[in-house]
Structure formats: structure tokens, C-alpha cells
Write a structure and sequence with these properties.
The complex is a heterodimer. Chain A has nine helices and no strands. Chain A is mostly helical. Classes of the chains: A mainly alpha, B alpha+beta. At the A-B interface, helix 2, helix 3, helix 4, helix 5 and helix 6 of A face helix 1, helix 2, helix 3 and helix 4 of B.
Chain lengths: ~180, ~220
């Protein structure tokens, strides 16, 4: 296993000294997870493997753009993998900027983002997921990973559409509650 | 907090990467301009990261890793990119929009007293445009099937449902309101118009999962 701090250290090691051992450690941890995420979206194993490798190449190339005060390593790598999946789906001639433009753009000094540090955000979200009832977890997983409309999710789970929507809302509501007290 | 935020389910679909390109652009601009929306998307991205982290540990393909390490010899670690610099004349365009503007964007005068820049999306079923409306001018009443999503990028407008300023996100049946641009800077907004859906039967809808998502 790799803790959030260890993963962030490894990305910074790539940024500061092109550390190949750090890359190998990140690859061992994240490549299988990215692959599993892409497979859930409906891709075959070979495509998923390719996307996972491309995502990890981006981790290497863009390591200097990683900012641990803005996103945890898992969050950052998730957004890279997601963008690769979007490119795959759109087969776009104009690939999405894997550059995290929020990092580049973020107007600093705004009341914005520092009220909760990124590491805490991630830790809290993880805790929240651990405590989420199974019926809410499954709809959130499907909404996130399987790229499905709420209607399709409802059909698959043999639930009324309204139930799926309300479970997604409940889960989002809990996510919001966890953070709202810190926000301006 | 924006007075007119995007619905949370839409932010979820954005963070999940499930929106068609035009809608993703609209939400991306809202997120760029509204700190509360940005916080919400940061949280949802963290949720995506945490969900990915929970995926069961599959075996690592060590030969793939070896090949990858060999490839890295030829791939540079890139320096941190410089801060975003807005384009002269397009200072109101945040980064997600900049790459859609092309080398030489220009406002096209449209009958009815407003100006438009059409944006092309790869294979999206939405019509995506920037509209510019001079202060005090209104949009002609128009009708269209489908839903219209609007993000204000500069200035503001008022219609019978309220007043909308920079960063505000709204959606509703297209053309059923009469917006008037507020005094001050010209009102510039991104409009994403859902085209009439061609495939509406149960199978057609299934074939077209990205055309329309039930996020309301």
C-alpha cells in the first residue's frame, strides 16, 4: 500500500530529479487501479491497459504541475485518467488538456480554496465513502465509473428512476455536509 | 456563492467525465468563474480519486512496467507551465474556452442585433456559441426544441426569472425568455443548445448515451 503522503513524495521526486524508481512505485500502485477504472467504463482489457499506461506517462511528463496543496496524488491521477477516458470516448482530434488548468489558472488569494487543505479533503472523502450505506455507494460508483445515465443505472439495479436520483442526492448531500461547516 | 449555481448532479457528471463536450465546456467555465463550484468539483474529483483507490488490487504487469521505463528515456519531465495569460480582446475568456477560440476568432453580426462566435465541437450534438449583446439590447424571442444552458462570461443580463452576472449558470427550455443586457460592459455568454434528439426510442437512446443525460 501507498499512503497519500508517500504518493505525493513520489510525484515530487519525479518532478525534481526524474526519479525512475519513484515512477515504478507509482506505476505498481496506480496502473492496476486506473485499468480497473477504465474497464468498469466498458473498455476491453487491452484498451484499458493502454489508457492506464498513457495516463502514467502523463504523470511522468506533468509531475512538475502536481501541487499537493491542491489535490491528493490519487485525485490528481484520477483526473488524468478520466481525461484520457474522455479522449478515448470522443476520439477527439483535439485532445483535452491534461494540463490541470485549475492549477494554472486558480486565482490565488481568493477566499476560495485553502479553507480545507487538499489532503484533508481526500482523507475526509475516503472516510465518508467508508461510512456510506451500500445502496448509496453502488449508485455513486456507477455514476462515476460506468458513464451511465441515471435511467440506465435505474434499469440495471431494477430500481425506480426516482430512487436512483434520490440516492445520488443523498450521497452528494453527505459529501457536502462534511465540508460545508468549513466554508465561508 | 454564485446566485445561480449549476445543479450538483451536473457537477457530478462533469467530475465523472460523462458530459458531452459542449456541456462540459459550459460547466468548466462556470467552475472557472465560481469559487463555490470549484470547491464542489474539487470534492467530487477527490471522490473519484478515493473510488479509484478502492478498486481491487490487480496484478501488475511487470513487463509493461519494463517497457514503460525504457520509453521514459525519450520522454522529458516538463517544466511547470507558466500562468495563464488572457488573450488581448478576449480577457473574459478563461482557459477552458481559450483553446476553442481558434487563431482568429471574430464576432459575426446576426440579424436581431447581437453578435455570435460559433464554436465547433468534435461530434457533439449541441450547438455551442458565444453571444455578445450590447447594453440595453435584448435577444429576439426564439424557439427551439431542447434545453438551453447559459454561462455569463462578461457583463450581465436580466429576464423575467432574475438577474444573471459573471459565472452564473442557468438552463431551461430554449428561447422561452427575453434577456436584456445590463448597463456597463457588453454581455457575453456561452450558450449551449441541445439539438433536437434524433434517436428517441428505447434502443436509440441506448445507442446515444451521451446525447442526453437525465441529471435533473
Amino acid at each position: 500500500m501507498l499512503s497519500a503522503d508517500e504518493a505525493a513524495d513520489l510525484i515530487e521526486a519525479i518532478a525534481s530529479r526524474q526519479d525512475r524508481a519513484a515512477f515504478a512505485a507509482l506505476f505498481r500502485h496506480f496502473a492496476p487501479r486506473v485499468k480497473a477504472f477504465i474497464v468498469r467504463g466498458g473498455a476491453d482489457a487491452e484498451t484499458a491497459q493502454e489508457v492506464a499506461q498513457e495516463a502514467l506517462v502523463m504523470v511522468w511528463r506533468k509531475a512538475a504541475s502536481f501541487d499537493r496543496s491542491r489535490a491528493s496524488a490519487a485525485t490528481w491521477i484520477y483526473t488524468i485518467a478520466r481525461n484520457k477516458r474522455i479522449d478515448l470516448l470522443r476520439r477527439s482530434a483535439r485532445p483535452i488538456d491534461t494540463e490541470d488548468w485549475l492549477v494554472v489558472y486558480a486565482p490565488e488569494g481568493e477566499e476560495a480554496d485553502k479553507s480545507v487543505l487538499a489532503g484533508q479533503t481526500y482523507t475526509r472523502v475516503k472516510e465518508l465513502l467508508g461510512g456510506l450505506p451500500a445502496d448509496q455507494l453502488v449508485v455513486i460508483q456507477k455514476a462515476f465509473f460506468e458513464d451511465k445515465t441515471h435511467t440506465v443505472i435505474a434499469e440495471e439495479l431494477k430500481l425506480p428512476l426516482g430512487t436512483v436520483k434520490s440516492r445520488i442526492r443523498l450521497a452528494l448531500g453527505r459529501l457536502r455536509e462534511v465540508f460545508e461547516k468549513d466554508e465561508p | 456563492m454564485s446566485r445561480h449555481p449549476a445543479p450538483e448532479e451536473l457537477l457530478l457528471d462533469y467530475a465523472a467525465g460523462a458530459l458531452p463536450e459542449g456541456l462540459a465546456l459550459a460547466v468548466g467555465l462556470h467552475v472557472a468563474l465560481d469559487p463555490a463550484a470549484r470547491r464542489a468539483v474539487d470534492r467530487l474529483n477527490a471522490l473519484g480519486g478515493a473510488l479509484m483507490e478502492r478498486e481491487s488490487e490487480a496484478a501488475v504487469d511487470e513487463t509493461a512496467l519494463e517497457r514503460m521505463l525504457a520509453r521514459l528515456d525519450k520522454i522529458a519531465v516538463e517544466p511547470r507551465p507558466p500562468p495563464f495569460v488572457p488573450r488581448p480582446g478576449f480577457e473574459w475568456a478563461p482557459p477552458p474556452l481559450a483553446r476553442y477560440l481558434g487563431p482568429n476568432p471574430h464576432w459575426r453580426r446576426v440579424l436581431g442585433g447581437f453578435e455570435e462566435i460559433r464554436l465547433t465541437m468534435g461530434g457533439d450534438s449541441h450547438r455551442v456559441s458565444l453571444l455578445r449583446l450590447m447594453p440595453g439590447r435584448g435577444l429576439p424571442v426564439h424557439r427551439h426544441a431542447g434545453t438551453e444552458h447559459t454561462v455569463v462570461l462578461q457583463g450581465g443580463y436580466t429576464d423575467e426569472t432574475g438577474n444573471f452576472g459573471v459565472g452564473d449558470f442557468t438552463f431551461g427550455p430554449a428561447g422561452e425568455h427575453e434577456p436584456i443586457a445590463d448597463p456597463g460592459d457588453p454581455c457575453i455568454a456561452l450558450i449551449v443548445l441541445e439539438q433536437p434528439i434524433v434517436l428517441t426510442g428505447p434502443i436509440g437512446r441506448w445507442l446515444n448515451p451521451l446525447v442526453r443525460r437525465d441529471w435533473i
